[in-house]
Amino acid sequence: MSPITELIGGAKAYGWGSFAAAVGDFESIATVSVGSGGAANVEFTSIPATYTHLQIRCLSQENESPQSSNTSFDNLVMRLNSDSGSNYARHHLNGNGASATAYGAASVTYAYVGISQRGGASNLYFGATIIDILDYANTNKYKTVRALSGADLNGSGNIRLVSTLWQSTDAITSIRISSDSANWSLQQYSSFALYGIKGA
Fold it and tell me: Exposure pattern of 6-33 as b/e (b: 16+ CB <10 Å)?
């Protein structure tokens, strides 16, 4: 018997077989794929309050209108419950393989949640981001968002660790993600998947 099989069998013998299925499971809530012509933003609405945490997994590329040849990076930003007030505080750590920088800001109008690839006319690269939204339905505390993202330019790139505090005790029922540049939009094939994480 393999060690893994023996471990699983022992767990079931002690009545622990349901533990892994109940705690920490990810359940798909919704997925948005950007179609032809791009989109100014993507939005998840009517998010159920039946999970402990949320996670969003993104593959994103942006482009300028009119189309640009720029192949660098842009910021992905997020607003919760359509809140555009100065109720967010954020900081991030950024590295490019040669140096690292840190930045922070309080009383800002949106959360930074990572970096997105700027498409350009022939760029096939997409940025990758994982966003965790902790205790999103808890009405007794402010909400914490953390994100890890990276993007590559075939020889150079960026990686970023970001955290944001949303200063509201409201349960999160909607999430909107966009570029922080008004003239940049999310390109076709960008994909955003929302998951709920079960707790104990």
Answer: eeeeeeeeeeeeeeeeeeeeeeebbebe
The domain segmentation of the chain, as residue ranges, is: 25-197
pTM over 0.90: no
Closest residue by Cα to residue 74 from 195, 178, 189, 191: 178
Alpha helices for 14-113 (secondary structure H): 19-22
Helix (H, G, I), strand (E, B) or coil at 57: strand
Instruction: Judge whether 175 and 116 are in contact, CB under 8 Å.
Output: no
The length of the chain in residues reads 200
Interval 60-91: pLDDT, tens: 988 766 555 555 778 899 999 999 999 999 99
Q: Tell me the one-letter amino acid at 124.
A: L
DSSP three-state, residue 80? strand
Q: CA of 141: how far to CAs of 51, 127, 135, 154, 169, in Å? A: 16, 31, 8, 42, 5
* Residue 20 pLDDT class (50, 70, 90 cuts): very low
Scan for tokens 């960008």, then name that residue: 190
